[in-house]
Amino acid sequence: MTAIDAHSKGPILPDPRSRDDPAATPALSIEGISHSYGTRRALIDVSFAVAPASFTALLGLNGAGKSTLFALITRLFGTQAGRIGIFGHDISLAPGEALRLLGVVFQSRTLDLDLSVTQNLLYHAALHGIGKREARLRSDEVLTRIALADRACSKVRDLSGGQMRRLEIARALLHRPRLLLLDEATVGLDVKARADILGHVRQLVIEQDIGVLWATHLFDEIVPGDDLVVLHQGRVLAHGPVENIIADAGARDINSAFMRLTGAAVDPGSPAS
Q1: In the chain, what is the greatest distance between 2 CA atoms, to the nearest angstrom?
Q2: If you placed Cys at 172, which of 30, 103, 211, 253 could pair as Cys (CB 3.0 to 4.6 Å)?
Q3: How far apart, in Å, are the Cα atoms of 192 and each of 39, 195, 196, 223?
Q4: Burial 154-178 (b: 16+ CB within 10 A, else e)
Q5: How many separate domains does the chain show?
Q6: Residue 95: CB atoms within 10 Å
Q7: What pLDDT score was predicted for residue 145?
Q8: Banded model confidence at residue 98, pLDDT cuts 50, 70, 90
Q9: Is 188 left (phi over 0), alpha (psi -120 to 50) or beta?
Q10: In a domain, 253, yes or no
Q11: 151 falls within a domain
Q12: Phi/psi of residue 6, each to 5°?
């Protein structure tokens, strides 16, 4: 099936004008990325961009290649083919500069359950070379922002699932990145906790001008006005504003547009697996 692309077909990584106009540089640029596990092709010529201070949803079934793409962006896997840029820094050529601008929340929980909320944050700050006094100030700041200041001394294992996820987001923001990646951040949470987490992330885009790539398999986490990338079996089938993708697919909503693009029958708001 031919990919639908509501954006231009120009180069993904910034052109020379970006040096004079920082806003022209994508927060994240993915250009011709392919990746294989032996003979199995997980990603096939994937290209799209995330604009600064914007919310982009990466929608795909479980196994579509979302987590593989995140592993490549974060350098957990080496790039086999193609280029990845973070605010113009090629992650293969300048990984330090690129990754300093990046915050990540992975699908699997990575908190130390036996440390306190604050201890988890201070440990992360130390890994980023943030001094103790500054780390304490930043920890207090992010805990207040995510309404966990009253749990600062609590062990992480005593938090609810939604509170743990909010803490992971706070930790990812501690070194003040300009791009935030979230891989299935609401998995395992109840409806209210999911809405709270998603609302918090959307507010970060508005208040802190952070670019966000939100990977999900849930249709109800995508709203009109979002930029959307549809990833299926390792290929980008569509990229652009939600309204454009729905219209170009001749569909009535994102659920039916997704079904027409992929041939998958999935109920809206339910796990696409």
Answers
A1: 56
A2: 103
A3: 42, 5, 6, 17
A4: eebeebeebbbbbbbbbbbbbbebb
A5: 1
A6: 14
A7: 83
A8: very high
A9: left
A10: no
A11: yes
A12: -85, 0
pLDDT tens track for 130-165 = 999 999 999 999 898 888 999 999 999 999 998 999
In the predicted model, is pLDDT for residue 19 greater than 90? no
Confirm if 215 and 182 have CB atoms less than 8 A apart: yes
Query: Between β-strands 235-241 and 4-5, what pairing exists: parallel, antiparallel or unpaired?
Result: parallel
Cβ atoms of residues 72 and 14 within 8 Å: no
What are 62-79's pLDDT values in tens digits?
A: 899 999 999 999 999 999
Which domain does 147 fall in, by range? 111-176
**Kind and range of the H or E element at 41?**
strand 40-50
Tokens matching residue 121? 């944050």
3-state secondary structure of 196: helix
Q: What is the mean pLDDT of the chain?
A: 88
Look up residue 142 and give its DSSP letter.
H
Q: Which two tokens stand for residue 66?
A: 């979302």
Q: What is the 3-state secondary structure (H, E, C) of 174-191?
A: CCCCCEEEEECCCCCCCH
Using N-to-C axis directions, what is the helix angle for 132-145 and 117-127, rounded to 10°?
130
8: which residues sit within 8 A by CB, 6+ positions away?
none
If DSSP states are collapsed to H, E and C, what string results for 67-95?
HHHHHHHCCCCCCCEEEEEECCEECCCCH
Through-space distance between the first and last CA atoms of the chain, rounded to whole angstroms: 21
Task: Taking residues 34-52, report their average pLDDT.
Answer: 96
What is the enclosing helix (H) or strand (E) of 237?
A: strand 235-241
Is position 167 within any domain? yes
